[in-house]
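Shipment paperwork, digital attachment
Item: protein structure file
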Amino acid sequence: MYDSAVVGGFDLVDSAGNQVTDADFEGQYQMVYFGYAYCPDVCPFDVARMVQGYEQFAQANPDLAEDIQPIFITVDPERDTPDVIAEFTANFSDDLIGLTGSPEAIEQAAENYFAYYTKMEPNAEGGYLMDHSRSGYLVDREGQPMALLPVEQSAEAVAAELEKWVR
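Attachment content:
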């Protein structure tokens, strides 16, 4: 145990509409990022760095990379339907799983990771942005969060963090 207040865990829905929980990845590492598909600036870059870091690690450590699952969890379930999530994650990698769910399920998942998000005031056209934390999490084979992934820095920094922890 890492004696962390961050407990991890989720019970959500994938892009095919199937229920997915963190227990489905037992025995694997998880790379978890909370964001939303309509994010105009931060999320696409953070997710790209996360996936590129994973791919760099995979090139150097193909056997270990088979035991890592990159996961994108939306903080905007109102707009991020399974179809929208599928389209968003496909822009980055076939290895990236996108998850959505009810507002309550998203709230619980975010709470488990101490991830923050809130809906901003709508603009004149009714569109809105989501304010959210931008941490990437590395979860160990037993489902325990073990490290933050520096998704805001670079793909190289993400790969180095994976190199440090994944065994």
